[in-house]
Amino acid sequence: MRHRFEATVAIDWSGAKGRRHKGIEIAEARGSDPPRLVRPGHVWSRSEVLDWLLDRAAKEPTLFGFDFSFAPPFVERGSYLPGDDVPVEAKPFWAYIDANSADEDLGAASFLEQLHRRHFYFGKADGTKADYMHFRRCEMRFNASGGGKAATVYDAIGAAQVAKASFAGMRLLNRFAGRVPVWPFDPVPAQGSLVVEIYGRLYIRMAGLRGLKLRDRRSLNQALDALGSPPWRQRTRLTDHASDALVTAAGMRAMLEKPDAFSPEGLTPLIARTEGWTFGVT
């Protein structure tokens, strides 16, 4: 491994309401071993993920990846929520969300549904969906490269619930302050652990597969093989969330071998402070 991380960990995230979330899965790829699910079958809470990560980060240098947007678009319009008095850099914005979300288990639904409702698309009653489709520079780069259509954090409708997942995630990121650095808002440390943003579709694309979901062991292992990873060997039920986490943990490990992993073209100091970047988009 080109970098000094002992393992890569991918967390398939959820912004759903409630205390426990079947949509959360954690997978790790250690050294050159096959990727594995962490506590397979366990129904995680977001707070539990936070505690688990902080404990793990202190024990060994690990690269952690979360599949939500670490910040809304900023460069395009000069504000995260134009017309509202909100912070203009990511870290203060995370703190603002955390301070103004009373939802249980680090949820942020009330932030979207009540405090800043007019910025988010919940359905036809909100008008034309295209008016809400604003993107960060890394998303524009991914889409332009043929990666597909990355979602926007202003879209609060549909099964993916990109908006709720991301804003709940930003509350989580605020809890890392001073304990685990978050790239690119923080520089890559010379030692210790690091948190990055991930996008599962990116690593499926890196594996040369066209489908968005890997629904069986055969297709999952085909993707892992293309990413230079041994096959998955655990004998447990494979869900969409589990396969996403497994292939992403392997993809992150493969990405670490690239010399430009943490210096993608297009990442400027302004973007690093405001919008962030998805690990693996080059």
Description:
- This protein is of the alpha/beta class and 282 residues long.
- It has one domain (1-282).
- It is built from nine helices and five strands; from the N terminus they run βββαβααααβαααα.
- The chain has helices at residues 46-59, 90-99, 109-115, 137-144, 162-175, 200-206, 217-226, 240-255, 269-274; strands at 7-12, 25-30, 36-37, 62-66, 194-197.
- A five-stranded mixed beta sheet has the order 3-2-1-4-5.
- The longest helix is centred in the last third of the chain and has 16 residues, at 240-255.
- The chain is globular, with a radius of gyration of 18 Å.
- The two termini are 19 Å apart.
- The mean pLDDT is 90.
- This is DUF429 domain-containing protein.
- It comes from Sphingomicrobium clamense.
> What share of residues are in beta strands?
5-15%
Q: Return residue spans where pLDDT drops below 50 for at least 5 consecutive residues.
A: none
Task: Please count the helical segments.
Answer: 9
Strand adjacency order, main sheet: 3-2-1-4-5
What are the main properties of this structure?
single chain; 282 residues; alpha/beta; five-stranded mixed β-sheet; 9 helices; 33% helix; globular
How is this structure best summarized?
The longest helix has 16 residues, at 240-255.
Topology:
Blueprint: E1 7-12, E2 25-30, E3 36-37, H1 46-59, E4 62-66, H2 90-99, H3 109-115, H4 137-144, H5 162-175, E5 194-197, H6 200-206, H7 217-226, H8 240-255, H9 269-274
Helix pairs in contact: 2-5, 6-8
